[in-house]
Amino acid sequence: MASAIFFLDLKGKTLLARNYRGDIPMSAVEKFPILLSEAEEESSAVPPCFSNEGINYLYIRHSNLYILALTKRNTNATEILLFLHKIVEVFTEYFKELEEESIRDNFVIIYELLDEMMDFGYPQTTESKILQEYITQESHKLEVQARPPIAVTNAVSWRSEGIRYRKNEVFLDVVESLNLLVSSNGNVLRSEILGAIKMKCYLSGMPELRLGLNDKVMFETTGRATRGKAVEMEDVKFHQCVRLSRFENDRTISFIPPDGEFELMSYRLNTQVKPLIWVECLVESHSGSRIEYMLKAKAQFKRRSTANNVEILVPVPEDADSPRFRTNIGSVHYAPEKSAIIWKIKQFGGGKEFLMRAELGLPSVKGDDEHGGGMTGGFGGSMGGVGQGKSKRPINVKFEIPYFTTSGIQVRYLKIIEPKSGEPCTDAEGRQKPVKLVVDPGVFKHHARLSWLLTGLVRCAGTVSNAYPGSLVT
Hints:
By secondary structure, the chain is α+β, with helices and mostly antiparallel strands. The protein has helices at 32-42, 77-95, 100-105, 107-117, 128-134, 150-153, 216-222, 244-250, 366-371, and strands spanning 4-9, 14-19, 49-52, 55-62, 65-71, 118-119, 122-123, 135-138, 141-144, 169-182, 188-202, 208-213, 234-238, 253-255, 260-269, 277-286, 290-299, 306-315, 321-327, 331-335, 340-349, 353-361, 375-376, 396-400, 411-417, 438-439, 446-447.
């Protein structure tokens, strides 16, 4: 529960404010920039909430704005911070860009939105698609319908009634991100997969969807046998449309989806994985006058898969010049604005390895201090010694692999239930309609900190093995 919401510029000047409860003096916001400055001096990591004289300050920063909530009560800080992020999301839908100028130009509609999104300090409707049905904007003018849509007071506030499509479709996208910590000898010290399931639903009426995954806890709870691999998800977070009681009971993900695009759930898995692209880097400095890089990149995934749009960014001294490159695949160029060499490979087949050699001049002795006079090794520690310099920036590796997930998560089924009969949708002959999923390329990120402080950032697409290319048509 929040007593007041403020929009401030970076200097702490109030651009717009909405006082919901009247129990906090509006002058309390004047102390915010001072308190924030003091907190920044004490610690480099400033907390998103702090207290002063019995008033709790909770804030987020977006673009050139501070969005601040004040309350005297011992409220749920996570709830208020989530609401502030929802404000950013809704306002961005309305104004395209949320910044100081858009606040000044649209203060009338902002007050209307704040009144609909929060009542007496309690969050209410925060779905932008529902708000846009009865709060519209044309040339900074507000138009409000005489009666709000039923969805505002309906139990299903995230979806309007009366939606109709000539062709019903469901799209599913699995996005996974891997954080990987690797030692200098190539051992994986820590690995964590952060995943999300995103959907696009274009369905008529008020359908109910049921999604089943190869969830290890579900198999253990129900006593069912699994033929393939089961994954154990942790820290699962669902969209508000998911029936949590049903999931806690039998691990079935049952929901009435919002119309359009949304994130159904996010999850975390602790599992041991290996880097999908293994990079070895050898750096040799020659008398401080030039520096030579020798890179070897190897794909450690199956041959049937191919990594697309591979980009390897190798940091070099800021004063490097006269670059010369040699490689057996792709293209290499020097980016002085990034002080880096960028090696691009359009397609990187599984099990293959490629080499690249680069040589740059060092007009000053600065490069010799940073990189040392010897040789520095990269992934796997197979290149001799480690870096001896004081400043070593990370190597970044980016790529995409279509139809690939590291976690092994699978969609066992996706059913659409007719709201009246409660039965799965069937065709004219009584057979259940086939479920086909359009699986878009996702994102797979990989971070590795190694002997030469080489950090690999790997991006690849994710998919589920049970999915079929196409779309769900009813």
